[in-house]
Amino acid sequence: MAHRCWSTTRTNGMSKTTSHRTAMARRTVWWCALLLCTCACASLEGLRERAEALQPWLVVTRRDLHAHPELGFALSRTTRVVADALRGMGVHDVRYVARNGGVVAEVGRGKPTVVLRADMDALPLQESADNPVKSTVDGRMHACGHDAHTTMLLGAVRLLQERYNASNRAAQGAAEVEEELCPIDPEGSHCGSEKKWPGGTVRFVFQPAEEGRGGAKAAIEDGVMDGAGGTYAIHVWPWLRSGAMATRSGPIMAGAAFFEISIMGRGGHAAAPHATIDPVPAAAAIISSIQTVIAREVNAQKAAIISVTRMETPGNAAVNAVPDEVLLQGTMRTLDVQLFKDLRVRLEKLVQNQATVFGCTAKVGWMEGRAEPAPPTINDGEAQMTAVRGASKLLGAENVEEAEISMASEDFSLFLQKAPGSMLFLGIRNETVGSTRDLHNPGFIMDESVLPIGAALHASVALQWLEEHQSTSEL
Known about the structure:
Layout: H1 18-53, H2 55-67, H3 76-88, E1 95-97, E2 102-109, E3 113-119, H4 146-173, E4 200-207, H5 215-221, E5 230-241, E6 245-247, E7 250-264, E8 268-269, H6 279-296, E9 304-312, E10 321-322, E11 325-334, H7 337-357, E12 361-365, E13 377-379, H8 381-395, E14 400-402, E15 406-409, H9 412-416, E16 421-429, H10 451-468
Parallel strand pairs: 3-4, 3-5, 5-16, 6-14, 7-15
Antiparallel strand pairs: 1-2, 2-4, 6-16, 7-11, 7-12, 7-13, 8-10, 9-11
């Protein structure tokens, strides 16, 4: 039965007081608002149900990607799988970006434009997990969930392409609607919202080389953020229960830079250290001093980490020889953009000063080209709330939480420098299926029941954003 919201009250010929008419009008507005919420929720429930119906396809897709991991920009098989899937859905404008390691596609037409992004590259790890499907490539593994990210975004494309096509068909065959018919029921049937496309474009970016290789930078240079008014990404999160979503306003993930310190001395026989300039004590002093910087020079209210994670003496395997050189490598992380810049300068000065004390020379490199830096990931407050509203309709408010800040890094931060948006964490912690290991762990296991939730979450957030930004559209 059609629900109508009349602009005037009918009185059956009886006189009504102004206060009674006002009360009736208020009840009418409340009823229409209630129906609007009900219809919107029903529409998103339909989206969730459709996504659940895609579960078998999503699992097959994710397992195929998991079995064939590729690194960095060299994602020839992965991009072929993605592009073929997109074209099979009827998405026509599919193009390659980021040194041909990434894929971009769009659904919709005109402005505004919102960008959904997924990363696709694997890690140089040997898989140890007892998975139903394991990596077929030695020394490579999807241990950060990028195979799931890619699969969920493909699922979102399918959901949104279906909705856009249905909206076009409905628009072509729709009859004129009475002016007084409530907008929540444009067809006088069942709210009409399931087939409605709010207007605008959703751009899907399948990005290569997120794992420190500069994939986001390369994709942005190829124009993936041109004309975008908002942007979102999902990262699977093994510290959050399966099916829940978490996000927050402001910093959500740290910025990260990767350093390499070369300390040069003069080698010689270990029996005559007085005839050498030993770089090993200098290296030890530098490692200790770095932690003093964090403990005594950084405001305790500002999170910062500098970790030396590797130490070697290149070209020297002898245990009875003082080396010529010590090489240190590590990572620097913080949530504050200015502190991120300041710590780079401070580290360089500290290394030079400590090396000089021991009679050595030193230089600091930042590994550009091998491990690209990424600034802190900072969510926009309004964009984050848009995602919360869309997720709450889809998942229920009880499954939407405020995220804890993570000191892990993400080059999606560069997308957020181009348009307001938000990183979203999607929980995959499920002890029943063994999905409890941390990211970047050789034993990482993915809870595949979350795949349709992620696909529907992408789609619902995009639709919510488009609905809220129609005033800026230029269709």
